[in-house]
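debug: dumping io for the single-chain case to check the tokenizer round-trip. Nothing else runs in this session.
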Amino acid sequence: MEISQYIKNLQVPEGPVDVVLDTDTFNEIDDQFALSYLLKSGEKLNPKAFFAAPFFNHHSASPGDGMEKSYEEILRLLQLAGREELIPRVFKGSSSYLPDEKTSVISPAAEELIRLAASYTPERPLYVVAIGAITNVASALIMAPEIAEKIVIVWLGGNGREWNDSNEFNLMQDIAAGRVVFGSGAPVIQLPCSGVVSAFTVSIPELTAYFEGRNPLCDFLVKRVKDEVASYAAGICVSRVIWDVTSIGWLLNDGDRFMKMRLAEAPVPEYDGRMAYDKDRLAGYVYHIKRDALLTDLAMKLTDGKCF
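debug: decoded output
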């Protein structure tokens, strides 16, 4: 790919674009908001596929169990949103993380990404939004390195550069996959967690005021947050980060209305928890979130304009 086209592909796209979403949807409560935001942004975003990503925490018994639960959660959300026609576009992903940087984990999701990407070009790329461990995407790139020129990867992973480490949930689950993706030659936009998109929070009173009672999808999302918050913060004032929404927000960021980004040296996550940087490769680096503007757009779309 010519360097001019590479840099162009690191900018917010103009006009309608095709998108696949790779998500560990059952991991917590923010993936559900991101997926819903994608569904409600049809004026610019055309969802081509949904991939279930592996995860392992207190919500799952193993990475594979997390992927299976995420697959079921994607189906649940599509039904609540009245988008059952998209169910055939949902694919199961990897049941484990990469064993190393040269060995893929074959899955229906990785195979579908390769199949889809084949029909795109550097001038008209497929946008791959990843909001979990990036195993599925890395596997596809190992299996078919040529797709790197045909996709743009928007990944919520890693932390802000002031942290200078790779100790973030999405990244630390599969460091090998992160290294494959950043070294693949594909244009990558990084939305870092701590210190950047951690600013995108919502409180229970805001959820109640703007989302609750508007439609079944909104009620489901609000209940998910309330149940999660009650499990660890009952009786205290608390807000909840719904950071995965920002990855969809980047695709809609015409005129920097939701966030600020700059070009920076591409990160190279190290296995010892450090973060190095590749001075010979550029990546997009989001460094500021306009929280109120993004939350307003999210509320307006998810409630069909009934939030105020």
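debug: round-trip ok. The mean pLDDT is 96.
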